[in-house]
Design goal:
With 445 residues, this protein is an alpha/beta fold. The protein is built from 15 helices and 16 strands. It has a single domain, classed as Alpha-Beta Barrel (TIM Barrel). One of its GO terms (biological process) is carbohydrate metabolic process.
């Protein structure tokens, strides 16, 4: 993938990061001590196929992931939960044809997926195709802050791109790639391997900034231009009505084969849930480009403030407010819209600015407790939530934020790579222990 030269907050890079590549056996020991029963991680497409379908499989990459998967299973009661791609793509494909802007990327993704299913599928029971493709498309092709850093000049200072059309094209090719990979898995691998396959979406719960009809409709448009943009085609075979009403013929069309595939487009939905926002109508009021005032944004402005007061508790991280009710509301929204398709909370966690070691992370503990309570409320209301993954086990390289934000239950010294448990690690271990004990009591009752 193209790198974001000069865009990392602290000027750092992720070449070593926490060196999980070499230290994963020790990190798996930490997970076993916590008593987690599944480890969600992403494969690197570029590590397995450095040149896409235009080159050979890198068997060193295959061997590395085989060792990891085997090590996970040897821990007992721990399952690998694998994502095929987490924003990355072989640079070869970007250089040859512009990666997600060209329909032929679907052929490359299916080729890659088949290699993974063949090499790892006999031991992997949980697959997801993409991690947060909505974030990837919005930041990579509309705002230009993530690779490949494309946007219109009215949105940001990009040297190339088109914020109105390119995100729609990239999203369409990602959706078609997802459908093709799921179709391949279901036809050739699922019966023998007995696994499940889904997709992971970033979610934001949008609250109308007022009770006006315009702002209530704006909150619906905000979901359409963020979440259901991807999930409606996968589940229903069509883009959401709110997008069609605004974008019209600019929305790409699906083929008959795509529509056939969408009838079984996933087995579950992964929900990454961190934040909530207010949604303000920009159809009937004037908003600036990039601040809700464009067709590409659905004519919705979203932020965390209402009358100068934040939605939830500020954290010191500028994009991150704590609002547990958003977890419950988001899970119920997905449950009701997608007919009770099984859900996994694939990411949820608390980030703090990098200010020293901070092992007594009581704010993270409070966050986890409150969000898990919200998750339980949703389950009591009928949400079919099958699992929960916290982000994150370790502090790590956080994309364009570099090492300036820490999400880990274990502090990492980035010079020595030493892992030190925080209070949240002890709390989570006790939470899991009590949950297991309660489950056994219920079984014995």
């Amino acid at each position: 993938m193209s790198i974001c030269i000069g865009k990392i907050a602290d000027g750092s890079h992720g070449k070593v990061a926490v060196d999980h590549y070499h230290l994963y056996p020790e990190d798996l020991d930490l997970m076993k001590d916590l008593r987690v029963n599944s480890y969600r991680f992403s494969l690197s497409w570029a590590r397995i196929l450095p040149h896409g379908r235009f080159g050979d499989v890198n068997m060193e990459g295959i061997d590395h992931y085989n060792r990891m998967i085997n090590a996970i299973l040897k821990k007992g009661r721990m399952e690998p939960f694998i994502t095929l791609t987490h924003y990355d793509i072989p640079q070869e494909l970007e250089l040859r044809y512009g990666s997600w802007l060209d329909p032929q990327v679907r052929e490359d993704f299916v080729h890659y997926a088949e290699i993974c299913f063949r090499h790892f599928g006999n031991r992997v029971k949980f697959w997801t195709t993409f991690n947060e493709p909505n974030v990837q498309v919005i930041l990579g092709y509309r705002k230009g802050t993530y690779p490949p850093s494309r946007c219109s000049m009215t949105f940001a200072n990009c040297t190339r791109g088109g914020s109105d059309i390119e995100p729609l094209v990239a999203a369409h090719n990602i959706i078609r790639s997802h459908l093709a990979a799921v179709n391949l898995y279901q036809k050739k691998f699922q019966e023998d391997q007995r696994g499940k396959i889904g997709i992971v979406m970033n979610t934001i719960w949008f609250e109308p900034v007022s009770n006006s009809l315009a702002d209530r409709l704006a909150a619906e448009r905000a979901q359409a231009f963020y979440l259901t943009w991807f999930l409606d085609p996968v589940v229903f075979g069509r883009y959401p009505r709110e997008m069609k009403d605004i974008l019209g013929e600019d929305l790409p069309k699906f083929t008959k084969d795509d529509l056939k595939s969408s009838k079984n487009g996933l087995d579950f939905i992964g929900i990454n849930q961190y934040i909530s926002r207010y949604a303000k109508d920009c159809l009937h009021t004037t908003c600036e480009l990039g601040q809700g005032g464009s067709r590409a944004e659905g004519f919705v402005y979203s932020n965390a403030l209402k009358d100068g007061l934040p939605l939830g508790e500020p954290t010191g991280v500028n994009w991150f407010n704590v609002y547990p009710q958003g977890m419950e509301d988001m899970l119920m929204y997905a449950t009701e819209r997608y007919r009770n398709i099984p859900l996994y909370v694939t990411e949820n966690g608390f980030g703090e600015n990098n200010t020293g070691v901070l092992l007594n992370d009581y704010r993270r503990v409070k966050f986890m407790s409150n969000y898990l309570d919200a998750l339980k409320r949703a389950m009591r209301k009928g949400a079919d939530v099958r699992g929960y993954f916290t982000w994150s086990l370790l502090d790590n390289f956080e994309w364009i934020s570099g090492y300036t934000i820490r999400f880990g239950m274990y502090h990492v010294d980035f010079d020595t790579l030493e892992r030190t448990p925080r209070l949240s690690a002890s709390w989570y271990k006790n939470f899991i222990f009590n949950h297991i004990a309660q489950s056994k009591d219920n079984e014995d009752a």
